[in-house]
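Ticket #4471: structure output looks truncated?

Reporter: J.K.
Steps to reproduce: submitted the chain below (426 residues) through the standard prediction queue, then opened the result file.
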Amino acid sequence: MSSDASLESAQAQDAADPLSRLRAAFHVPATPDGRPVTYLCGNSLGLQPRRAMDEVAKFMQEWQQLGVLGYHDPGADWLNLHERLAPTAAALAGAQLPEVVVMHSLTINLHLLMASFYRPTRERHRILIEQNAFPSDRYAVASQLEWHGYGREALVQVAARPGQQLLQEDDIAAAIEREGGRLALVLLPGVQYLTGQRLDLARLIAAAHRVGAVAGLDLAHAMGNVPLALHDWGADFAAWCSYKYLNGGPGATAGAFVHERHFDAGLPKLAGWWGNELATRFDFAESMKPYRGAAGWQVSNHPLLGMVPLLASFPLFDEAGMGALAARSRALTGYLERQLDERLGARIEILTPRDPARRGAQLSVRLAGSRGGGRALFDGLISRGLTCDWREPDVIRLAPAPLYNSYEDCWRAVSIVEDALNAAPA
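Returned output as attached by the reporter:
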């Protein structure tokens, strides 16, 4: 075993890393006996920023003292909360400020955006997704097709090659080219949820546009995880959630992107009062005057308690910068990968791409014996103090989030996996 595999080496790397200080800004759950949990599950639910409780308490006090005047009080400024969050969202998305909005939930946003961007015709009505898309995306797309009177033949799916786990971008690009003028929409993930594979979005967006199709993105596992450049890549629209890498809490208010070239294109919208321009919203006019920008896709008054924790999380991204966080993510994920390889070897299989440019802060693994008893192995990890997650049929996902995870976390995670494997029945 190399010196890099020692606990002391992990602790030394943490001590030398200036971004390690950010861990102190988060609450880390504890085991029943009071020990910190080894939490590698930020790809499912991010940890709570310590300031989140203060922000929520402040909001509750405003509500208590101001009632409805909280919307108009300059200190509380509830009306403009989504606009206060927009600069950080734009920076993380690689977007112009008017191109982003913090609103609603991921799948609701996808439906609102597809209502505008999926405009099928008899000749061009097919939608392309990856075959192993997250179920919510599949359901949303299938229901859009059904809503417009199309069946399963209009759903084009690109799968991994036989015997492989990862998508081949050549296959996606070829399917787009093959569908050509029949293709209305391409909807792809930024990071594939099961394997952690990061797609070359610039290439695939360009491929969609070459055949005249719209390019939409689900960035649930990419936003706050990997650097994005939605404006420069030319994506038509995108949506994301805020409870994973953005640390907004369970069911936190999500977000959306619309490229500025569509602002004056006259796209139809499923409209609601909250999408009105703020200056005229309270005129209660018969005709709507929407925001010029992504905020014009808002429909309802947002549940503010779903947005307030982001006031605690977003400043941490501003402080660190996505470039530095991405570098730290590569280092942490690479360290975890080396530990798994060196200490567990053939007892594990890493499904995530080995190339750091093709992944984010996630390694998806199969453990030896998991095809028959993987769930029991996973339960053993949880009972030993490793919080990770399980995805059917046999995948365990480990996500070292760079805002709060450490080299020591990665070292301890591998030790727990090793212990669980050693304890498993032969």
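Triage note (M.O.): checked the attachment and the full token line is present. The longest strand covers residues 183-189.
Status: closed, working as intended.
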